Amino acid sequence: MDVEFANPSAESAIPSEESFPRRTLRKRVTTSKGSSLRFKPASVSAITPRRGTSPEDSLTKKAYKQAYLQSASRASNERENRVRELKKRALAIPSTGKTPATWRQRLLMQMVYDEITPYPDEAWVSQLGVIINRSYHQVKNWFSNQRQKDARDSRQHTPQPATPAGLEASLCKISCDGRDLRLRTAALESCKAEDWSDAFFDEVVMIYNFRLLAKHSQEEARAACGEPVPDVGIPS
User: Fold this and answer.
1) How far apart are CA 149 and CA 215, in angstroms?
2) CB distance 90 to 130 below 8 Å
3) β-pair partners for 182
4) What is the DSSP string of 98-119?
5) pTM for the whole structure
6) pLDDT for 161-182, tens place per residue?
7) Which end of the chain has fewer surrounding CB within 10 Å, N or C?
8) Compositionally biased, Basic and acidic residues: which spans (predicted)?
């Protein structure tokens, strides 16, 4: 049934549902003294156990960390012992004095200088010396003399004095078996930085040495047969 109001404002006098004050029901906890306390439910994060914070997980992470540190320390010690023995072998090679390097020794050292690095460390100098049968100090001095020669040539071709950092600026610093090395960009274009290691360097030098020996044997065989020896240059 519709109700008509004589006064239009009387309709607005009827309280609506929204006008009633809302009351929030709160649970109360009665203490032993009879007073009541408001009850606040615990949060989800307080009820649900956090992942990775249990004592078992902490012990597992600690064990993994200790195992990793022990493995890294063991690998470092093994490498130091290997480099020490390799350097000992290179130092035991008798020095040839002022006798110049043979064609094979020179080509191998030049390949390392031009294609890999002009700054080989003691591990790579020792490996190279053992492969080409040249003493440690002779190989090390050859690289030092070659860097000085390139610096002189650079000063002759450029009017301004060459800076010592010019060669180093063209190199890329990488981490190899736990130490830093500076390689040429050509070496990193052929292989990734993480692929370079002492074993990989030894493999590269051995393969190049084998190609040089094979090329020399072919030239000797052709010369023995009286055939002309073509000048094919250094094997790539």
Assistant:
1) 28
2) yes
3) 173
4) TPPPPHHHHHHHHHIIIII-S-
5) 0.65
6) 545 556 777 899 999 888 899 9
7) N
8) 147-156
